[in-house]
Amino acid sequence: MRGFKKYLIIEFKLFLREPEAFFFTLIFPLFILLVFGSIYGNQPTPFFGGHGTVDVSVPAYMAIIIGMSGLMNIPMAVATEREKGILKRLRATPIHPRTILLGWVVVYFIVTLAGALLLIIAGKIIYNLRFEGNPISVFLAFTLSTFSFLSLGFVIASVAPTARTANIVGSVVFFPMMFLSGATFPSQIMPESVRRVSDLLPLTYVVKLLQGFWFGGLWEDHLKGIIILLGILIVGVVISAKTFRWE
Amino acid sequence: MAIIKVEKLRKVYGKTIAVDDISFEVKKGEIFGMIGPNGAGKSTTIECIEGLRHLNEGRISVMGLNPLSDGYALRELIGIQLQEANLYSRIKVWEALDLYAALYLKTINYDSLIESLGLTDKRDSYVGKLSGGQKQRLFIALALINNPEVVFLDELTTGLDPQARRVMWKLVRDIQSQGKTVFLTTHYMEEAEQLCNRVAIIDYGRIIAIDSPENLVRNLGIDSRIIFTVKESSIIEQLKKIKGVNRVEQRDERMIVYGQSEELVGEVVNILIKNKVYFRNLRTEQPTLDDVFLNLTGREIRD
Questions:
Q1: Are B142 and A89 an interchain contact pair (Cβ–Cβ within 8 Å)?
Q2: A5 touches B: beta carbon within 8 Å
Q3: What is the spatial order of strands in the sheet that B224-230 belongs to?
Q4: Number of domains in chain B
Q5: pLDDT by residue (tens digit) across B67-110?
Q6: B112 exposure class (CB count in 10 Å sphere: 0-12, 13-18, 19+)
């Protein structure tokens, strides 16, 4: 793993110099929290089982960041570096592909985590965010979900011939999930038919998992979601390892 | 001593035969050029040697290593500039060198490279803001960061203006003077004549000639021309008698002597002076590698 540290630092710098990715992962979720927070406040309401809007929204918006990182940022970053010949140039050095892949995973995991922490901090300071769960469980669920979606992103990047198609495929997969998974609008307001569609979307399980653990849910109550996300992770890793292309 | 050996290399993409049964050797310390039109198979060959492509048939050895099975070990020892590759546009020049330096076991100080390649002013610039020539110089720096034994340059000067091209030529000669071997491809015949100790001319995936540029041109059997301006035409008969002269033409005041001897210029000038013939604007036109290519293939090289 020679050069891993330098590679990681460069990928971080590049992320920070890329205004679009920076905005959508770190600023945009904060922005919608402020919009909905200022409309609904964070008073406990029976509609959310005694929780406030912000209490329910913070874990849900974390799911948005996870989806965005995996389905928008990773395909774009990977496909762009491939299309521009950046990977090809790297390949002309003794670097190993796992250094590159692991570099992306670490960078986008940390970025996703940073986005989540920003939401928590803002929620706490502005809306007195309540937390009733076990932080370790939430962190583990967050980690599983993120890795699972990052692996989906690598699959999209491998399948898409160009950066443009990677972006389009990522959007086509991400945006319906963003709106139908309960990440943006609570599933409580969705009609039964929509909820049935929503049950087919992987991001729905991320929302359920994070919200569940946020309010002290137990692992055994979320086995279905965990198995689905774990399955996506394994299949995603296998496919992306097999289909990784330098150019 | 051969530092690169290619034996019966064959590479096929689908139904297209990119490289068809080529064999050659590159000697240690030389600048070896592979020249030919776009699409002739130059990049495919160089990328097979670098271990970046699988080959269908044949054997390649670089410093005794197999580019595919010993790829990681080989890439520690060679420097590569690729034709179709890039860097992140928002990476700074020093960051790119710093990153690439970290990928090798053995490296040289990148600040000395920045200086010797004339990139000192651009040290903190984003790669995306560099001019074509500056970018190519950075790519050379990256190819030299591990102090390689062999440097591969694929179409280094394509798209550069003549001045930037000349700067590149000097840099390539500098690389050779450090004792390194250079393998380059180009479709500029002039570049190959200026730089290469030996060239392989490749067309439609086959090597059609391989030798030093001088030998290729000499063996062509095409006349050199000596052209000068002269007032009197009485000298023409004497010029025709010079050994090696095939033909003498006169158009108004311009005299053109066609011939193939090594001493041609000396002889012509001698006769002119001996007979006190006043002449001016004397120049010679030698056949070039372009003529070699034209002669071998029956067509001009496509740019």
A1: yes
A2: yes
A3: B245-251, B254-259, B224-230, B279-285
A4: 2
A5: 999 999 999 999 999 998 899 999 999 999 999 999 999 999 99
A6: exposed
- Tell me what percent of the residues of chain A surpass a pLDDT of 90: 78
Identify the sign of the CA torsion B164, B168, B171, B173. negative
Coil, strand or helix at A33: helix
CA distance to partner chain A, nearest, from residue B102 (Å): 5
Residue B127 tokens, joined: 């790669």
Domain spans in chain A, listed from the N-terminal domain onward: 4-243
Say which residue the tokens 């591969």 belong to.
B152
B115 Cβ contact partners less than 8 Å away, ≥ 6 residues apart: none
Phi/psi-derived region of residue B14, left when phi > 0, alpha when psi is between -120 and 50, beta in every other case: left
Same domain, B183 and B50: yes
Q: What is the pTM of this model?
A: 0.88
Q: Which residues of A touch B95 (CB under 8 A)?
A: 10, 13
Query: Using the beta-carbon criterion (under 8 Å), do B88 and A86 form an inter-chain contact?
Result: yes
Q: Please tell me whether residues B119 and B235 are part of one structural domain.
A: no
Are B100 and B114 contacting, i.e. CB atoms less than 8 angstroms apart? no
pLDDT tier, B251 (very low <50, low <70, confident <90, very high otherwise): confident
